[in-house]
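Long-time lurker, first post. I've been practising inverse folding by hand and with some scripts of my own, and I keep getting stuck on stretches where the structure tokens seem ambiguous. Below is the full token string for one chain I'm working on. Before anyone asks, I'm not after the true native sequence, just a reasonable design that respects the backbone. If someone could post their per-position residues I'd love to compare against what I wrote down in my notebook.
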């Protein structure tokens, strides 16, 4: 016998926004920074990704732990190479007023773990990671259990 116990009824709406859970200020680096500089920034800040910006501060790419693993595994570039050679260009982004549900759906649909949060001018204002979403879910379940 299977018993279904609804934790949250469908008529209740908990609309958390991306701005409620994003990490801010954003961790950024210039596209001309070296791979080593960006890896050091990730290590020192304890983050899994860095948003890459141009001279105007506009988002042009992202570097993640996956990118660094791929770099080491392939050995295609040296640590002194500019980060723009290995960054993911034109990353998937989300706005601060979007729902956390939408952020999680984008992460799943695009198979990504880090989602840059940008303003209407495409300037970085924060970052949402899968860990941030899980922390929010954990906090939510603790409040209602």
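-- Answer (accepted) --
I ran through it position by position. Result:
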């Amino acid at each position: 016998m299977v018993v279904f116990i609804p934790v949250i009824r469908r008529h209740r709406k908990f609309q958390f926004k991306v701005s409620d859970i994003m990490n801010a200020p954003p961790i950024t680096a210039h596209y001309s920074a070296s791979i080593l500089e960006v890896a050091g920034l990730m290590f020192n800040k304890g983050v899994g990704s860095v948003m890459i910006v141009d001279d105007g501060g506009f988002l042009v790419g992202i570097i993640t732990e996956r990118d660094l693993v791929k770099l080491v595994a392939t050995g295609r570039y040296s640590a002194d190479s500019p980060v723009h050679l290995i960054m993911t260009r034109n990353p998937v982004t989300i706005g601060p007023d979007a729902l956390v549900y939408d952020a999680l759906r984008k992460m799943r649909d695009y198979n990504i773990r880090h989602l840059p949060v940008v303003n209407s001018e495409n300037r970085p204002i924060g970052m949402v990671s899968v860990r941030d979403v899980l922390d929010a879910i954990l906090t939510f379940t603790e409040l209602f259990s």
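A couple of notes from the structure itself: The longest helix spans residues 130-143. The two ends are 24 Å apart (CA to CA). Happy to go over any region you disagree with.
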